[in-house]
Structure prediction request, 111 residues.
Amino acid sequence: MSSFGKKVSECRKAKNLSQKELAEIFSTSHTTIGKYERDEMTPSIEAARKIAKILDTTVGYLLGETEQADLFKDKKMLQRLQDITKLPEKERDSILLTLDHFIKASKINSI
Prediction:
């Protein structure tokens, strides 16, 4: 699993930004960005959110909670998941069971 700093560095490079350019967008110094990338310094939660937004990823990805940089970036999918969580338990369980079946069938069909 990659560290926060390594993931920031990878995302920054994927966006073709230098440390200096990221620092300017983030309103800090390039030495601070370097310290984040070398894991010498840990940003605040708010700073991590801002870095994730600038780098078009999620805090969860930067923190290693997921290996997908764009997970939960689809606003329509997020809204659907939020709507499902608001349903009564019985309906929510039925929808999730149906989704599980569709996902399983899709995986089998793609083999």
Notes: Helices lie at 4-14, 19-26, 30-37, 45-54, 59-62, 75-85, 89-109. The mean pLDDT is 89.
